[in-house]
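Hey L., structure's done. Input below.
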Amino acid sequence: MTPQLKFAGRLFALLALTALSGCNLVVMSPSGDIARQQADLIVVATVLMLIIIVPVIFLTLFFAWRYRGSNISAPYDPEWHHSTRLEVIIWSAPLAIIIALGAVTWISTHKLDPYRPLDRLDAQRAVTPETKPITVEVVALDWKWLFFYPEYGIATVNEMAAPVDVPINFKITASSVMNSFYVPALAGMIYAMPGMETKLHAVINKAGEYEGLSANYSGDGFSHMRFKFHGLDQSGFDQWVARVKQNGTALNRDAYLKLEKPSAKEPVRYYASVEDGLYRAVLNMCATPGKMCMEEMMHIDLMGGAGTESHENRARLEHDNRHAGEAAHGTPAPAATFPATGNPARSPEPAEGVNNPQQPQSQNEPQGQSMNHDMHNMQGDTPGNAPGGSQGSAAPAQLNNDTPAKP
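Output:
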């Protein structure tokens, strides 16, 4: 090998090591048993696939060199077309790898199910009936994390802690958009979705401070949606709980509604007390006073619906109307497309092609209120009241293909 090639090889190795020096290998060297088993699964799956990939790469290069055009000593057999021995090797080896990989994946998928309670603390210790887990209720906000500790009556923002070698039962939800709860040193990621509760069972085996984050893009403040996870011994965890109670404030619905508003780079906050049922209200999307809880909504559906009186529940079912008042302040609300009227959504301009002389809009009447009146009239139409009469309104010309309405 020439000195130039040796220098190029050493330079390439140095650049590769420099690039890898910035990598965080916490995924392959975690501190929790669930994450440890997931890392082992990655190694096993990679090795099984390399059993096929490495020989294929080697043989590809070998055949390209062995049977190159300038090698006149290589055997030349243009009539060759089949070899049973090669067929058996080519097909049986990958088939065996696929069977082994499928078996390992199937077993691990059930064993590492995040909804499955833990049956061990680590490879040497099993969970005994005397082992008491702790429960942590997680809410993904815009763009911060809220943690409830129902057994201790406290809550925190962007910081959580757990004792070492104690199972943790996570209950996870979100306030508005979908996020993904992820502590790489503890366990795999799991989604946080509004109106739904996902679960995760995990345990931390080493004391330390670990990074937690959102692994699902959720808007402007996503990059800073991170928190600290502290693995502590039992005495350290008790001191952490005492510090939260000593330095924290009260978390009621009013405080939660202020906290729920979108904000980024929020500092750590402690709450020494939590209003009863607050997490359940967040989960059921009824933390705002006057909103219908999803449990009540599902009960109504189970009983066959609320009938003609259900329009009275409309205001109680509006869970995400954060942009509803922007048009009134001169800021157009976001909309995907223009409607058939030709004007943007919630535009203050009169609709093009719509003539409704039966219900002229008052200058002092907000546009949203007029829209509610129209919707109410549409819901109040009966077979005896033809559209366009005293109880209804004419449809836009665009929706009737420019055909004049019948009298």
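The chain has eight helices and twelve strands. The mean pLDDT is 78.

-- N.
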